[in-house]
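Retro notes - structure team

What went well: the batch runner handled both jobs without manual restarts.
What didn't: labels got mixed up in the shared folder, which is why I'm recording both outputs here explicitly, each with its sequence directly above its tokens.

Job 1
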Amino acid sequence: MARTAVVTGASSGIGAATAKALAADGYEVILGARRLDRLEEIAGGLGGARALALDVTDPASVEEFVARVPSCDVLVNNAGGALGLDPLSEADEDRWRWMYEANVLGTMRMTRGLLPALIASGDGLIVAVTSIAAFEAYRGGAGYMAAKAGQRAMLRALRLELLGEPLRITEIAPGFVETEFSLVRFGGDEEEARRVYEGMQPLRAEDVAECVRWVASRPPHVNVDEILVRPRDQATAGEVHRAPEADG
């Protein structure tokens, strides 16, 4: 009987790549995200995958989603994101609130809802995609850093609370990954989003998905607590090597 994996934020980027990687390893994948049309397109190419509408910032949406998941062996909490790059002195409370809802409360809601099924599986795995922002500081990142640090702290507590249960917990913290992340952060400004990765080689969504796939492939007694993965061109959250511009 095939194992089931639930992936949130699966309509693009890391979530979509993770769904494909786990499906290739034989999982029956359930994809969740707000953009159902894109989810259905991705699920259609995975053979047997299911696409369900999901907004992790909405408790009712999470409850409805969880009610449609009969079993769960792997939960990948990937939904989240950042809004803006403003200094704290100019913080927008609505943006901060959304980041906390999406990254922290969203992970809590999905984990709480599927925890009984994960434990009942006899070999459950919870993976949360956080960020190097949970470990390191950078200018303008206070709101996102606070949310990701909160998400990381929650995972540490959960690991203690569930000690002795047939359940593993892994945090995967990527550095620069070229996805729609920066496009969302900058409100759809494609030029601003493109500038983030200029002159350097960022990670691809598939690189992070491979981390998830590898963690899920470990035997039940092996818990990979955390993976911090970043491109070779990135030393810290704010220190990046960029190739000089070519002479015109």
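Job 2
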Amino acid sequence: MAISQRLVDPSPEIRVPISYSWQDSYRAALLETDWAKMVELVQAAESEIHKRRLQLSKDQNGTQEEREAVVNALNGLRVLRMDASAWRERQNLSRI
């Protein structure tokens, strides 16, 4: 096989990174390192994602990929919320 043949991607489709309107707030919650701020950012991200999820259920403009990304993001935020709650409990116990 010639070198030029090995360098060509056989896939006919071009993949472009997709960005959704709710991703910035989701990313902010994921990247926050201050647990006290994280709770607020998780709530804001959940709110934006739920609004988009409602839009997706009303109209058919969204893609299956976005629907899956919404579910995955909400699952990730649920884990962050539980972690932040556990942190808050530890903080309250250490004050006693």
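One thing worth noting from job 2: The two ends are 71 Å apart (CA to CA).
We'll revisit the folder naming next retro.
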